DNA sequence: CCCTAATTTTGATTTACTCAAAACACGTGT
DNA sequence: ACACGTGTTTTGAGTAAATCAAAATTAGGG
């Protein structure tokens, strides 16, 4: 009995989400898996490696579809373009380096999903909480001069 | 005794920050005070009302200077342009309406500044934590059809 | 009141992304 | 196995938000 239940293949992921299986979609899915927290441009570069005909707009289209289908999560830290990752479903957060913009995952502070509840929500029905930590990554701590793209606002 | 210590005038704020006092700066400061969570464009519109010669670039320049000086705080919720507010120093957070993008302040969940500490920070030296809640504002709850500018991703 | 550095204006440019029409291909039905 | 329809991708253009740079202007110390 070869179980079909052990981590679905990219094909299955797409099919199960009701999306057609296409080469660009498989390639983007793989690229995001390999390099989490990538932006559209670098995914485009990665995809071009194995599928030279692909257009940047296709990558944007695929990322939109995958995000809508819930196969991929989009984050948008201040001052960065949108980043994509495959780790979904758990509610995890991110640390962003104020100097070089490197991103790492942070497990949810309080365990599962509703890890935060606003004190007073002004009548809003709150569906989600998003947490971004800002700091200096190990590399930039060691190498203080080398700010790659400064101006990220550490909230204050 | 008319105390000089009660909330500094805009002039004083600028001077104390080592910035020259100029009409555009006073106007932007006032406009942000009046309409918190405004973006550059709408501040530009407001400023134009009382100071017709002002350029959009000047508004961007002023906002940059005020932000650097810590007189104004910049936030950038996903899918919105940068927003500015005068409430600073306290570490407060925001709820953003997923439908109309309205923003409200939320007091820090755990009291003062270090209201969150990442469980494992991958060697980052964390300086700040930023929390954004996503939900439906009262108006959009009552008026479900009227999505003003959809596509804000409720994190998932 | 003058002078200099900071600020603002004017004008061009970049980045990240969206829109639309035409060509193409996945996969359902036969 | 094959055609057909719709969803996808390509091609090409366009937009919003913001940044960059040089020239003109102005705040405010001396």
What composes the largest sheet of chain A? 3 strands, antiparallel
Oligomer class: homodimer
**Unreliable spans of chain A:** 149-156
Strand order of the largest sheet of chain A: 1-3-2
CATH class of the largest domain in chain A: Mainly Alpha
> So what's the overall shape of chain A?
globular
Helix content of chain A: 25-40%
CATH topology call of the largest domain in chain A: Arc Repressor Mutant, subunit A
Q: How many beta-strand runs of chain A?
A: 6
- State the distance separating the first and last CA atoms of chain A: 57 Å
CATH architecture of the largest domain in chain A: Orthogonal Bundle
Question: What tags apply to this protein structure?
Answer:
5 helices; globular; three-stranded antiparallel sheet; three-stranded mixed sheet; DNA-binding; Arc Repressor Mutant, subunit A; 2 domains; alpha+beta; Dna Ligase, domain 1; 6 strands; homodimer; 156 residues
Task: Please give a structural write-up.
- Two copies of one chain form a homodimer.
- Chain A has about 160 residues and is of the alpha+beta class.
- Helix content of chain A is about 30%, strand content about 20%.
- Chain A has two domains: about 10-75, Arc Repressor Mutant, subunit A (Orthogonal Bundle), CATH 1.10.10; about 90-140, Ferric-uptake regulator, C-terminal dimerisarion domain (Dna Ligase, domain 1).
- Chain A contains five helices and six strands.
- Chain A has a three-stranded antiparallel beta sheet with strand order 1-3-2.
- In chain A, strand 4 and strand 5 (about 105) form a beta hairpin.
- The first copy, chain A, is globular.
- The model of chain A is unreliable at about 150-155 (pLDDT under 50).
- At the A-B interface, strand 2, strand 4 and strand 6 of A face strand 2, strand 4 and strand 6 of B.
- Chain A binds a DNA duplex (30 and 30 nucleotides) through helix 4.
